[in-house]
Specification:
The chain has three helices and seven strands. It is of the alpha+beta class. The longest helix is centred in the last third of the chain and has 28 residues, at about 130-155.
Length: about 160
Amino acid sequence: MTSDNDIKKNLQNHLKKEIIKDAKRIKNKYPPISEKVNGTSKVLKVKKIYELEGNLNNLILIATKNYSKRPKYRYFLAILLASQSSDLLVNLAKEYSKKNNLKLIQFSLHPQHSRVGLYSLKEIEIRDNVTEVINLLKEFRILYRKDLDNLGKIIERG
């Protein structure tokens, strides 16, 4: 029987060997990511962000320090939906993200610039979910871009 600690170490090793090996670490100070837990807002401090390369292009891996003691770190895969976020773009993405249990965040990878991007992210809890999460995020980006193109065509005709 494997413990939660063994599963997390297995996930960390997999991320280091398979995902982060070709990734570029983005070094900056980042604001924390917050999440609602039982009606209260909890803060996850961002420790490291990696920009993934190759067939994982447009994906980033975010390592956060957990607000509870176990596990010590939590890992999220995120995909850039829009380089400049707005309320309209968030509303376009909201339905799909709720249906697939994805989180939407407005986050700046480069805080020295005033641009805040729209990202969709999903937590990776076990090693076996990594490929599934990658495919889900890529599919979301494709569908989101189609919706955005359709909206643009409607506006042009109007």
